[in-house]
Structure formats: structure tokens, C-alpha cells
Amino acid sequence: xxxxxxxSFFSVKxxxxxxxxxxxxxxxxxxxxxxxxxLINMETGQRGYAITGKEEFLEPFKLGKTNIVTHFxxxxxxxxxxxxQQELLTDMNTNILTWISIxxxxxxxxxxxxxxxxxxxxxxxxxxxxxxxxxxxxxxxILDKSKTIEYKLLKIRERxxxxxxxxxxxxxxxxxxxxxxxxxxxxxxxSNKITNSIHQLLNLMEVASQGxxxxxxxxxxxxxxxxxxxxxxxxxxxxxxxxxxVANASSQILISSxxxxxxxxxxxxxxxxxxxxxxEITATLKQIEEQAKNNAISAESASNQxxxxxxxxxxxxxxxxxxxxxxxxxxxxxxxxxxxxxEIDAIAFQTNILALNAAVEAARAGQHGKGFNxxxxxxxxxxxxxxxAAKETAxxxxxxxxxxxxxxEMADRTAEVLNKMTSGVIQVTDLIKKIADAxxxxxxxxxxxxxxxxxxxxxxxxxxxxxxxxxxxxxxxASQAESFRNMIQRFKINKSxxxxxxxxxxx
Length: 507
Prior knowledge:
Strands 1-2 form a two-stranded parallel ribbon. Helices cover 86% and strands 2% of the residues. It folds into two domains: 2-188, Up-down Bundle (Four Helix Bundle (Hemerythrin (Met), subunit A)), CATH 1.20.120; 264-488, Orthogonal Bundle (Helix Hairpins), CATH 1.10.287. The chain contains nine helices and two strands, in the order H-H-H-H-H-E-H-H-H-H-E. 26% of the residues are buried. Helix 1 (2-52) packs antiparallel against helix 5 and helix 7 (317-364) runs antiparallel to helix 8 (372-413). By secondary structure, the protein is mainly α.
């Protein structure tokens, strides 16, 4: 290709030089024609003036004389490298000067005719002799010889130009043919190489599209195909990492959903048991509330009875001592009742705290569900303690009633003595009133406890319902996670990213 290019370059250069010399030859021929035209114009002007004697006919002669000097000088310069042309130009110059001298003499003679110094017949006679014709003929012959030389040079250069043109065309055609053949061979080679590499990459992509991400493109070339292969490997690596992370996440979701389902079932069962226990506590508290109301009624009846026997107590001083002892026992019994009431109050308070804990644990049950059985067990223990306290209250109140009856019988026997102990009876009446008030307070406390326990029962029921819903949602989540994991497992990836790679060489 380089040789063809150099050959073409020099051929074109020589062809350009030949064309340049051709232009030079045409310029010389043009100048020679201009010399002849100038001579013809001078001859025409000289003859016109000789015939007419009018000065305007001398204008072509004068202009031609000026132009012929310029054209002759140009031709002499253009042919300075041609000795033969220089000889012809020298001979031409001699003949031109001779002809100009003859013409100027004829013009001078015609002017004398105009002045009357000569006869016109002499001018006509001189023209008929054609004195300057030989010089003009010599000039024409010299011009023809000079043109012949230039035409010969032109033909030689034209033949050389044709030869160079043929060589140049041949070189260009052969070079183009060789270049086209080489280009086709290179194109076929590169096309085949690129096509094979791309087909192999397409095969790898087809394998990857079927879920096998263990493939790897091994590129041996060092071009854009290498970049394409590296990009494909990077994509496969990223997809493998993504699928592995998704698979791990789906497994974790499946495990977590099963744990949540189990915890929700446990929470639902515990909430149901707690609701049952709370119902039992509520029933017990209602019984205690009824008993407290009965105590209040009995205390009020005792207060009324004490008022009746107030005047009779004035007469029973001795019997009143025994009554006072009985009343003290009633007082002690009332204090025990007060303690039991406090115990019930404490139980109600702790039950309220446990209800709050149950709500908190129920909220946590959505994650773990631990600790809820402990709270439920404690609620059952407190319910048992409330039942024992209620029984103790019933027993003490029954004893108090018996002692009050005993006091009443003693008061009947000592009616007269009680008249003297009015102040004592008044105090006993006040104590009984306090007992009645305490019984009413106990009834209200038990009612509040019952309300709190009802709230706990409602919370437990809500917790059980929420736990059941959470369990159902967890089962559905586990089913979806299992389906998702099964979908992910159809993909084949390299977990180690370094072993068991199925490679295909691209090159």
C-alpha cells in the first residue's frame, strides 16, 4: 500500500509538472499569435494611412508597435531555456525592426504627400513594389517555425502526460483493487471474530436467562468485546449477590413468620386462659360486694337497735361492762374486717398493675410472646387470695353478728342499767355507724375492683383476638415466604464466587 501510494504520488506530481509545461507552451503560442496580430494591425494601419492620408489610421500602427515590444519581451523570457527559440526570436527581431523602418518611411512619405512635397502616385508606386513584404514574409516564416517547435514540444508533453496518466490510473486501479481486497479480508476476519464473540456472549445470556448464574465470560481479546465481557461478568456477579441476599432474606422471613405464628398461638391461648381467670375473679368480687352491702345493712340495723336501747343502758351498769367487752370484740372484728378490706384494696391495686402489664405483654406478643403466662398465673394467684380473703370476711362478719346478738340479749337483761350508760351507748352507736360507713366504702372499693377486673377481661379478650389475627397473618406470611423461596431456588448461583464456574472462552 505504501509503495502504491508513493508511486501514485510521484506519477501525479510528474503529471502536474507536464500540465504546467503544457500551459507554458500554450502561453508561448499565445504570445507569438499576439506578435503576429500586432504586426497585422500595424500593417493595416500603415496601408490605410498610405491610401487615405488620415491620421486616425495610424492608431493601430502606434498601438501595435507598443504591444509588439511587450509581447516579444514576454516570449523571449518564456523561451529563455530554449536556445533554438532564442535564435529564431533574434532573427525575428531583426526582420521586425526592418519592417518597422520601411513602414515608418512609407508613413513619412505619405505625410509629405499631405504637405504637397510629394505626389500620391509615388506612394502608390512604392506600395506596388511591396518593399516590406519580404520582411513580413520572413517574420511569418519565423513565427511558423517557432510555433512548430512549441507544437512539437506540446505533442511530446501530451504523449508524456498520457503515459503518466495511464500509469497513474493503472497504479490507482491496482492499488484500489489491492486495498479493497485487503479491506475485505480484514473486515471478514474482524467480523468473524466479533460475531463469534457476540454469539458466545448471547449463548451465556441465554443460559443466565434460564436461571443459571454460574456462567462466566473469559475474554481473550483486547477491544470493546473485552469491555462487553467484563460488563456481563459484573452483571452476573451482581445478580448472583442479589439473588443470594433475597434467598437469605426469604428464609429469614419464613423462620420469623413461623416464630411469630407460634408466639401468636401461645399468646392467644394465654389470653383465653387469662380471660377465664378474670371472669372467676369478677364473680368472686361480686359476691364480696354483696356481702359488704349486707354488712352495711346489718351495721345500720345495729345502730338503730343501739339507739333504742340507749335509755335502757342507763340502768345496766354491770351488764353494760359485759356489753362493752362484746362491743370491743365487735370492734376488733371490725378492725379485722378493715384489714381484709385493705387486703382486697391492695389486691385490686395489684390486679390493676397486672392488667397494665398484661396490656404491655400483649403488645409485645407480636414479636416474642414471652412472659404472658407469668402474668396470667399471677392474676390467678391474686384471684385465689381474693377468694380466701372473702371467705375470711364472711366468717368474721358471721362471728360479729353472733356477738352483736349476744350483746343485744345482754342489753335486754340490763335495760335499766343502760339508762345510766347513755354516753357509752352513744359511743357504741358511733362505732357501729363507722362500721356501716366502712362497709359501704368496702362495697365501693369492691365495685371499683370489679370494674378494673372487667377492663382487664376486655383487654385480655382483645389481646386474644389480636393474637388470633396475628397468628393467621403469620401463617399467610409463612405461606407467601415459602412460595417466594421456592421461586428463588430455581436460580443457580455461585455462593463462593470462586469455584464451580463454567467458563466459555471468547476470542
